[in-house]
Amino acid sequence: xxxxxxxxxxxxxxxxxxxxxxxxxxxxxxxxxxxxxxxxxxxxxxxxxxxxxxxxxxxxxxxxxxxxxxxxxxxxxxxxxxxxxxxxxxxxxxxxxxxxxxxx
Length: 104
Description:
The protein contains six helices and no strands. The chain is an all-alpha fold.
């Protein structure tokens, strides 16, 4: 996520509309740049924003897009391991099954 969006998150809150707008703008610029690493980084920031906001369908959509763009194993393993609870939810059960399928 770009520094401006990060500053807005710290000063205005993780779910502040201005922070989300800055993150979306940074993602749009990354899409135009054809820089896959930068795009995934920006999408990761947007993913975290919607996840913290509690918008699980949007978070799932970002996760699906990132999986389409990047190597699924290298992206999903750190993401899954970042969770500390909720492993019995359908979304995390699906993520675990996908992760297990990618390692076999």
